[in-house]
Amino acid sequence: MNQDSRLRYLEPGDIIRSNDPCVTNQARSLVEGLTAEADRARALFYFVRDQIRYNPYSPYDKPEHYWPAATLKRGEGYCVQKSVLLAALARATGMPARLVFADIVNHRLSEKLLEMMKTNVFVYHGYVELLVQGRWIRVTPVFEKPLCEKLDIKPVDFDGLNEAIFHRLDNQGRVHIEYVKEHGIYADVPLDEIMSVWREVYPLEQMDMPSDWDWLAE
Q: Which domains does the chain have, with CATH numbers?
């Protein structure tokens, strides 16, 4: 990777505001005392995975809904928001990070969420690539461990050096997640692009915002 490309994935973006003081302070506290890149990447990953609750119905239609400082304050977010936070924290520590978007099929979607979405396809699912020891590594810091236990699915674990994305099978050997289409790699969130596709795929105006973990209901 040339220097210009590396800088592109280190600099703050319009949405990935990695220079926000609360982001830089959080990042600094998470990697304090850790010198190995893999250890720093792991610390950032597990903070976002487990300390930021997954909520697919977090506010989603404005840029400020994705700002990493806003996700830190809310303490929850859906896949893109959690991935933005991880990318911002990584950049704040000097680790290049970028976003990846793909369509996935969730075969274990609850009946309630399926009825609201009218599909089990999640378009523009967001995750992260971190540059660790000269290699881009894909990671998905989305489902926290208590949620995985509740759903009987495998948590995504990260050793700091190898890919960590959704498992295809759940704990019972049933098909859970399938990756069906990749949209590419981005330095920041292509929000207009995402919203344009979502308006075509999902009945956004009809989707009620459930409270707590109501969306898990069978």
A: 3-202 (3.10.620.30)
